[in-house]
Amino acid sequence: MDTVLLLTILVVIFALAFDFINGFHDTANAIATSVSTRALKPRPAIIMAATMNFVGALTFTGVAKTISKDIVDPFALENGALVILAALISAILWNLITWYFGIPSSSSHALIGSLAGAAISAAGFGILNYGGFVKILQALLISPFVAIAGGFLMMSLFKVLLKNRNLFKANKRIRYLQIGTAALQSFTHGTNDAQKAMGIITLALIAANLQSTDDIQMWVRIAAATSMAIGTSIGGYKIIKTVGGKIMKIRPVNGIAADLSSAAIIFGATLIHLPVSTTHVISSAIMGVGTAQRVKGVKWGVAKNIVLTWIITLPVSATIAAITYQLLNLFF
Questions:
Q1: Where on the phi/psi map is residue 151: left (φ > 0), alpha (ψ -120 to 50), or beta?
Q2: How many angstroms separate the Cα of 237 from the Cα of each of 103, 263, 282?
Q3: pLDDT below 50 — which residues of the chain?
Q4: How many of the other CB atoms lie within 10 Å of CB of 301?
């Protein structure tokens, strides 16, 4: 078999594996608040999240096109399949490491950092599409701050609306609304996160001269959506515990505020074709909600550890990918 074709097949397999891992790694983000408040039991919540992730993944392709052309120029990338394979291996390793320790790190940061690191290792810094790369980094870095502000404002609004209500009764009724907001959260997760694997596969197909445009083929969309849905159905219980309880004690009204604000930000990013970290956005929205509720109620030690992981993910994943590319280059 031709080496380029073999590498392209490996890229497709590893991209779907990344999407699968992304599914169980990031499931917690979409359903953690509804599980922690007992609006939903874990198993029904995960099944619902898998279904809505699948629907969301099939609905949009703008983020996939951004991934396929805005980090590196696929038409200028030599050894493209090898670069992409190294990036995927690096991103998968980092996702598994952080999942094992129950840390809600960013799959988006891991993938984008890995792709940049592998490309630089193969062809130097000039290979990066700096305009697109900076645009993506800005979206990744700014979105958590927007989410903190959004969570704070949404919770502040709920505090005004529920000012003269019995909080216990209000929380009991709101708990049922969390089923809807968790479904919305899962849908928006699919519209953004599943497209990253679609973009990677399309990038590999272009680099291997198997397609000449950045259009996302239907089989790629279905394969990526299915892979993420299956991964989601397995669920990430360790991360549910961290996101849903260790940042702050979440009540139904807090969960609704966090879900609505973060879903709006993720979907907004999808509409303007920018990849954001659902992990960053949802965790940050919970911090914003907690700050509006009671600053001391947020467990800032846990939040600090999450932020530290966010900061180191890009450089660490880029370094792992650069080393992985050099090792793969010895065999291919």
A1: alpha
A2: 11, 21, 16
A3: 243-245
A4: 8
DSSP state of 242: I
Reference 71, options 173, 214, 174; nearest CA is 214
Is 248 within 8 Å of 290 (Cβ atoms)?
A: yes
Quick one: pLDDT at residue 220?
94
Q: Tell me, what's the pLDDT at 244?
A: 45
pLDDT value, residue 271: 94
- Write the DSSP assignment of 120-156 as a string of letters: HHHH-GGGB-HHHHHHHHHHHHHHHHHHHHHHHHHHH
Give the C-alpha separation, 237 to 29, whole Å: 11
Please state, in angstroms and rounded to a whole number, the distance separating the CA atoms of residues 216 and 310.
29
Q: CA–CA separation, 263 vs 282, rounded Å?
A: 8
**Angstrom distance (rounded) from CA 270 to CA 311:** 23
| DSSP structural state of residue 296 | G
What letter would DSSP give residue 170? H
Tell me the C-alpha distance between 97 and 74, whole Å: 29
Three-class SS state of 273: coil
Distances (CA, A) of 250 to 36, 227, 289, 303: 7, 30, 9, 15
3-state DSSP: the chain helix, strand, coil percent, rounded to 5?
A: 80, 0, 15
pLDDT digits (tens, 9 = 90+) for 258-316: 889 999 999 999 999 998 888 788 888 888 888 887 766 666 666 676 677 778 888 99
Per the CB < 8 A criterion, the answer to whether 289 and 258 are in contact is: yes
Quick: pLDDT tens for 121-146.
998 988 888 888 889 888 888 988 89
Q: Which two tokens stand for residue 260?
A: 């609505």
- Would you call 72 helix, strand, or coil by DSSP? strand
Identify whether the C-beta of residue 91 lies closer than 8 Å to the C-beta of residue 318: no
- Which residues, in sequence order, are CB contacts of 40 under 8 Å at separation 6+? 31, 34, 48, 178, 179, 182
Q: Is 47 exposed, middle or buried (0-12, 13-18, 19+ CB in 10 A)?
A: middle
pLDDT at 306: 67
160 CB-contact burial (10 Å; exposed 0-12 / middle 13-18 / buried 19+): exposed
